[in-house]
Each structure stands twice: as C-alpha cells, then as structure tokens.
Design brief:
By secondary structure, this protein is α+β, with helices and mostly antiparallel strands. The protein is about 15% helix and about 20% strand. The protein binds iron/sulfur cluster (2 copies).
Length: about 70
C-alpha cells in the first residue's frame, strides 16, 4: 500500500487521476501548506503498480520495497 507524505502534496490530482484502480481520492483535510491531499479510499484495491508515485511531481508518494508487504 502506498504511503502519502501529505505535507509535500500540492493537490495537483495526478495520483488520483492516473491510478488504474481508483484507490485514491482527494480528502477533506488540508496539509500545513493549505492543500487538500489524497487519501486511500480503497486501500485493498492497490496493486502496488507505483503509477501514483511516478506521476507525483512533489515526490509525495512512496511504496514499500517489494517483499516488505505481508499479505498473510
Ligand atoms: S500503487 Fe498503483 S494501484 Fe496503488 S494507489 Fe498507486 S497507482 Fe493506485
Ligand atoms: S500527485 Fe502528489 S502532489 Fe499531486 S495530488 Fe497526488 S500526492 Fe499530491
């Protein structure tokens, strides 16, 4: 699952728009810079494709290293 460093976000919406699984949406909280930032509305749908991280111009999204995710 993705980690969103919300303080870096400037609410461009790219991560929400380009996620192939519609995992993300812009939330209702503002960060310290005054921008609404994304949250995972469907975290279980995430396939760790890293498209969101690649699209983010602020480097605000990280994915855990492969093998670090415990799927049970
Ligand atoms: S890693 Fe892929 S599936 Fe998961 S939130 Fe990002 S774009 Fe969506
Ligand atoms: S792509 Fe990055 S800066 Fe843009 S809304 Fe998503 S987290 Fe924020």
């Amino acid at each position: 699952m993705v980690v969103i460093n919300d303080y870096l976000c400037k609410n461009c919406g790219y991560c929400v728009k380009f996620c192939p699984k519609n995992v993300l949406e812009i939330g209702t909280q503002r960060n310290k810079r005054g921008h609404f930032y994304p949250v995972a509305k469907e975290p279980d749908a995430c396939i760790s494709c890293a498209v969101c991280a690649a699209m983010c111009p602020e480097g605000a999204i990280e994915l855990p290293p492969k093998g670090d995710v415990d799927n049970g």
